[in-house]
Write a structure and sequence with these properties.
Elements: H1 6-26, H2 31-67, H3 79-125
């Protein structure tokens, strides 16, 4: 999904054209001031776009909360959390593997990787209960 506003994009293109035109007329001595001015307008445009997106997402979350529905991508099954956990796990696997090999050779390495895989498996499957099982917060009266 392209979140760029065509009117704002056209406005920035026009600003760039005007800045380049003024630079040609005034010469290179005003170049840094013109660039700073244009970058300020780009920054303002980015801030406006980001602010609008944050307000929209906040409103979506508030509506989802009011309906009692968890917004997609939030909570433990969110992609960012899983991806981050996997990256951190692999980064920590390097020194853990080195320590395991120096202390217990191949057996230590195997045990270390069984632990790494086990932790990642538990993290990946947490929150997913077998069919027919209710969570404590889903039970009536609690």
């Amino acid at each position: 999904m392209d979140s760029r506003d065509p009117a704002r994009t056209d406005e920035l293109k026009n600003e760039l054209d005007a800045t380049l035109h003024v630079r040609r007329e005034l010469g290179a001595e005003y170049e840094s001031a013109l660039i700073e001015s244009f970058l300020g307008k780009v920054e303002q445009s980015l801030e406006t776009t980001i602010d609008r997106q944050v307000r929209r997402r906040t409103a979506e979350q508030q509506v989802a909360t009011a309906r009692g529905v968890r917004p997609p991508g939030s909570g433990p099954e969110g992609f960012g959390e899983r991806y981050g956990f996997g990256i951190i796990s692999l980064l920590l696997a390097i020194p853990l593997s080195a320590i395991a090999v120096t202390q217990a050779d191949l057996e230590g390495l195997i045990v270390a990787w069984i632990g790494i895989v086990g932790v990642n498996f538990v993290h990946a499957t947490r929150g997913r209960l077998p069919l027919g099982t209710k969570r404590a917060d889903d039970r009536d009266g609690f």
